[in-house]
TrEMBL record:
Molecular functions per Gene Ontology: DNA binding
Pfam families referenced in this protein's UniProt entry, alphabetically: TetR_C_13_2, TetR_N
Residue ranges the UniProt entry marks as DNA-binding: 26-45
Domain HTH tetR-type, residue spans: 3-63
InterPro entries xref list: Homeodomain-like_sf (IPR009057), HTH_TetR (IPR001647), Tet_transcr_reg_TetR-rel_C_sf (IPR036271), YxaF_TetR_C (IPR054156)
Organism: Bradyrhizobium erythrophlei
Keyword list, A-Z: DNA-binding, Transcription, Transcription regulation
Domain of life: Bacteria
UniProt-recorded name of the protein: Transcriptional regulator, TetR family
Amino acid sequence: MPANVKQTMIERTAVLLAKKGLQGASFSEILEASGAPRGSLYHHFPGGKDELVLAALEHAGSQALGVLDRLSGKSARDVAEGFLSLWRSVLARSDFSAGCAVVAVTVAAESEDLRLRAANILRGWREKLAALFAESGIPRKKARALAASLVAACEGAVILARAERTFEPFDLVAAEQLAMVEAAAKSAS
């Protein structure tokens, strides 16, 4: 069994959310995927499934922010490409079986705490992207709009690619997003 059972449970829950959604990620599947003993769920997460899902959301959110942090100082195009490649790699690694754990919780959560946490994560991604675009020279107002568009487009493109089991819709959306970012960068210079 892994040394850090709690962290393994969090990571595996994030993957299950991305693949099966909130209702599809059962306690049994979480325990099976993490290799954790049955009693460990409430030992590590006395608040139950919601507490575990909140931790998994934090993990998923910080993974994306980590990618964005590494793009500091890059061109607007490089920032957009970095964010797009994050989602393309999720599709590739999962053979189109995974999407975004944060969106999975957003669309299915009955808990206001879960919805609010998902909203904060998505807002954090938008804010980080906007800051990176602004850092590259795009005016702040335009940077905010581009960031919102990029997050929304990526999430939608992931859904289309998963449904169709092909990169075609994702790549079409990605090309349009990159064209928008390049136009904004060009008009700013």
